[in-house]
């Protein structure tokens, strides 16, 4: 019974014979496996139907994102749909993945791709290739998110990005809102740029800097 149910729900044949307790324990992972297989070849309507039926039991993992990126026929439509439904979850999974997968997502997702603090943290943990790509394509957005994430994250990105990383007014504003530790890192590494950006900003920002 458990074998037949699993075959019917997930179209799987290569799995252990679960007891009912094991079936429910593995239900989420079975959903992810099935979604990964569907994502690599099916269209957006199939993905939408599957998530509507079982969405609460599915996490968007690196495996799912890689499968979507490899979908030659409908990959772009599926990525846009997933970004509309689970944007941050998709981006965090992508940031944990390879540079190639992130490049596909940035290209196909366009303006729907929003870089948040959690995405930047995941990218930093993933390694230099992913963060280098994000800095190359979305430098200001990445630095704003990094400034909101704390001094360790902004320090890593400033070191890695080097002269290519520009400190803008928006980055300085985010640093001011984050606290003195982040601003101290910016001043230590990019004092002149920070002061120029601050001078272009509001009086309140300059006042905080002069404290």
Task: Name a few traits of the molecule.
211 residues, mainly alpha
Task: Give a concise summary.
With 211 residues, this protein is mainly alpha-helical. The chain has 13 helices and no strands.
What can you tell me about this protein's structure?
The chain has 211 residues and is an all-alpha fold. It has a domain at 1-101. The chain has helices spanning 2-10, 20-25, 27-39, 44-54, 62-69, 75-95, 99-109, 117-126, 128-149, 151-161, 169-178, 180-200, 203-210. Helix 5 runs antiparallel to helix 6 (75-95) and helix 7 (99-109) crosses helix 9 (128-149). The longest helix is centred in the middle third of the chain and has 22 residues, at 128-149. The protein is elongated.
Share of helical residues: over 70%
Rg from Cα: 21 Å
By secondary-structure content and strand pairing, the structural class works out as mainly alpha
Treating each run of at least 4 consecutive H or I residues as one helix, how many helices? Answer: 13
From the spread of the alpha carbons, the general shape counts as: elongated
Strand content: under 5%
> How can the largest sheet be summarized?
none
Poorly predicted residue ranges = none
**What is the straight-line distance between the termini?**
71 Å
Question: Secondary-structure element sequence?
Answer: HHHHHHHHHHHHH
- Average pLDDT figure: 80
Q: How many beta-strand segments? A: 0
């Amino acid at each position: 019974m458990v074998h037949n149910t699993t075959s019917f729900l997930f179209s799987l044949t290569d799995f252990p014979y679960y007891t009912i307790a094991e079936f429910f324990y593995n239900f989420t992972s079975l959903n992810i496996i099935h979604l990964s297989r569907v994502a690599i070849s099916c269209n957006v309507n199939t993905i939408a139907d599957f998530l509507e039926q079982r969405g609460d039991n599915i996490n968007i993992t690196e495996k799912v994102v890689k499968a979507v990126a490899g979908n030659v026929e409908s990959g772009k439509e599926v990525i846009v749909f997933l970004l509309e439904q689970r944007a941050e979850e998709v981006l965090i999974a992508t940031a944990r993945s390879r540079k190639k997968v992130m490049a596909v997502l940035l290209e196909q997702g366009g303006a729907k791709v929003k870089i948040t603090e959690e995405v930047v943290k995941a990218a930093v943990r993933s390694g230099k290739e992913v963060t280098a790509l994000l800095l190359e394509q979305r430098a200001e957005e990445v630095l704003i998110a990094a400034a909101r994430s704390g001094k360790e994250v902004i320090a890593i990105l400033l070191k890695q990005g080097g002269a290519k990383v520009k400190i803008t007014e928006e980055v300085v504003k985010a640093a001011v809102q984050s606290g003195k530790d982040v601003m101290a890192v910016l001043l230590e590494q990019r004092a002149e740029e920070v002061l120029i950006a601050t001078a272009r900003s509001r009086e309140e920002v300059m006042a905080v800097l002069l404290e």
